[in-house]
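Page 37, continued from 36.
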């Protein structure tokens, strides 16, 4: 009888856990669909990601094929968004440019978040290391991001990989500071002191107990870094210090368009609109993730307004 009762209790506990997880998922989806910013941003980013991933299948022309006889053709049935100053199909170059621009933004967000997480965690745990790492971060943040990126690209060379490295260096300090702030709060908790008293290793405390509690602000900050990286890459390319031509990126297209802005307005309008939509969608997603993670903050913000 005892074994049967124990098995029945286990089955009941398992069913309760399954029901609780199902209710949590239902509550999460309800909160997600009720957050208009999150839904709008997710739809925008999903559409742009589909365009970027399916670019080769959607693009009707070669992005590098030049036709001088068809240069600066306005939007038409043959060329949906017109042609650029070299006769290349603008729609094709924008689609391929989405792969480059969003790829750079995603890579920078991942690299900067990974390194910033490590720097912020160890800076929060070791006071001496904190003074060294945070002073380095302060020095990097004192330099305007675009100037630091230009200097790094000039030193490393105008390549796509170097642009990613330069932008990662620009955004690591901001992420490290966000992680450090969250980790400092967790480090003072009673259970962390209890782990130290029990002889837990430093790596165990940092990565199993402090790091998980910093992931929420890290994810929110990473979405904003994603958007900022896309804008900064476009600015670098617009200034001639980003992705080297003839590789298509939204910044390169804008750089070519500024030379013929009165003859081919479409070269600046269409990539500019896509840049605005992408950054707006990522910012909406970041705000939505923050509201999902901390609904009390969003409610207090609404009361203040």
């Amino acid at each position: 009888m005892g074994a049967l009762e124990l098995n029945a209790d286990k089955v009941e506990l398992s069913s309760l856990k399954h029901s609780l997880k199902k209710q949590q998922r239902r509550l999460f989806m309800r909160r997600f669909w009720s957050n208009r910013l999150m839904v709008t941003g997710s739809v925008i980013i999903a559409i742009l990601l589909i365009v970027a991933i399916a670019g080769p299948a959607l693009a009707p022309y070669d992005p590098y094929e030049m036709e001088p006889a068809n240069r600066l053709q306005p939007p038409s049935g043959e060329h949906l968004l017109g042609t650029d100053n070299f006769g290349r199909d603008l729609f094709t170059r924008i689609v391929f440019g989405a792969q480059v621009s969003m790829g750079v933004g995603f890579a920078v967000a991942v690299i900067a978040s990974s390194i910033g997480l490590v720097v912020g965690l160890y800076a929060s745990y070791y006071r001496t290391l904190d003074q060294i790492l945070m002073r380095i971060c302060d020095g990097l943040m004192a330099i305007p991001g675009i100037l630091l990126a230009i200097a790094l690209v000039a030193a490393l060379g105008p390549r796509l990989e170097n642009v990613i490295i330069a932008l990662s260096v620009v955004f690591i300090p901001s992420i490290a500071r966000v992680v450090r702030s969250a980790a400092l709060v967790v480090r003072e908790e009673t259970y962390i002191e209890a782990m130290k008293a029990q002889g837990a290793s430093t790596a165990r405390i940092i990565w199993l107990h402090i790091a998980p509690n910093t992931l929420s602000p890290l994810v929110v900050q990473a979405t904003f870094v994603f958007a900022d990286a896309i804008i900064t890459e476009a600015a670098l390319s617009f200034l001639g210090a980003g992705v080297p031509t003839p590789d298509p990126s939204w910044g390169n297209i804008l750089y070519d368009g500024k030379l013929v802005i009165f003859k081919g307005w479409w070269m600046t309008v269409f990539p500019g609109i896509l840049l605005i939509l992408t950054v707006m969608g990522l910012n909406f997603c970041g705000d939505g993730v923050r509201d999902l993670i901390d609904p009390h903050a969003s409610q207090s913000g609404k009361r203040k307004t």
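DSSP finds 13 helices and no strands in the chain. Flag for discussion at group meeting. The chain has one domain: 48-304.
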